[in-house]
Amino acid sequence: MTLNVLSIGGQIMSYAPQPAQTNTTLSLGEINRRLKQLGFNVHLAPDVAQRIRNTEDPSRFIEALEKAVNNPRAKEWLMGVLQRHGLLSDNAPAPTPATHPQQPSQQQEQRSKMNANGNSGADHIDMPPEDRMSFHVYGGKSALCFNADITKGGVHTVALDGAMAVATRKYDWENKIRVQMTRQELPAVLAVLLGYSASCRFSNHGADKTKGFTIERQPGKFFVNVMQKDRPLVAVPMTDQDAIYVTGLFMRQLGKVFGPEYLTMLPFLMQRYGALINARQRMQKHSTT
């Protein structure tokens, strides 16, 4: 049966059998669900799915996803794709299909409440699928992932992950540094991304207050640092093109805080906020000279 790729985007990978008149569509959520059922402990973010679509044969990917339940060769091919894109290590064991995915064990529920360093009592809550969104920014030695998140108080925000490279296009996400931005930090970062402020720096994150991040606007790009005491610095340049998507994520999260009228207020809010931040930075610079 010949498969025809129709689109990629909000519906990440779609195909229709040529003889049929109706289309069968796989959303990104459905693709991630099937990968999990096949035993792959991965989650494809939109930008990663786009990269796979650009470098692999999308129709073959979908066909393998359909056949992998009963076809070991199809499953091996999927594993190779995930390894090539840094989602699995080269020596990863063959996946075991997940059992009872709707009934996580008590240990799994506890792990879902743990932060990136394994500390229980994390400062975020589980998000419904429709609220999940993330965007990766890759550098040569490290990478970033901006994630939609919700604080334990129910406030929509953004969590920033930083991971070091372990090989070409492969990153150690299991040992990432995660920083969840506060409601005060969210507009400060957006002011930098929109050009109303030059930079921002925040620290004292994490249970032991040893984590932090900086974002600085530079000619033609931004530069982002994620740091934690006694850990290598995650430093990644972010192009203006990548910043467009990251900015959209921040605007989306603040929109969930302020409501539908937020976009009409955004220019005034950011201009006012940027002016306050710039004035404060000038005062601090003057006091140190």
Structural summary, described in words:
The protein is an alpha+beta fold. It has helices spanning 28-37, 46-55, 58-67, 72-84, 106-112, 185-193, 240-258, 262-287; strands spanning 3-5, 13-17, 24-26, 134-138, 142-150, 156-167, 170-171, 177-180, 199-205, 211-218, 221-228, 234-239. Strand 9 and strand 10 (211-218) form a beta hairpin. The model is unreliable at 1-24 and 96-122 (pLDDT under 50).
Throw out a few tags for this protein.
289 residues; 36% helix; 25% strand; globular; alpha+beta; 8 helices; 4-stranded antiparallel β-sheet; 12 strands; 5-stranded antiparallel β-sheet
Counted beta strands:
12
* Rg, alpha carbons: 21 Å
Shape: globular
DSSP summary: helix tally: 8
Estimated helix fraction:
25-40%
Mean pLDDT: 75
Layout of strands and helices, then pairs:
Blueprint: E1 3-5, E2 13-17, E3 24-26, H1 28-37, H2 46-55, H3 58-67, H4 72-84, H5 106-112, E4 134-138, E5 142-150, E6 156-167, E7 170-171, E8 177-180, H6 185-193, E9 199-205, E10 211-218, E11 221-228, E12 234-239, H7 240-258, H8 262-287
Antiparallel strand pairs: 1-2, 2-3, 4-5, 5-6, 6-7, 6-8, 9-10, 10-11, 11-12
Helix pairs in contact: 3-4, 6-7, 6-8
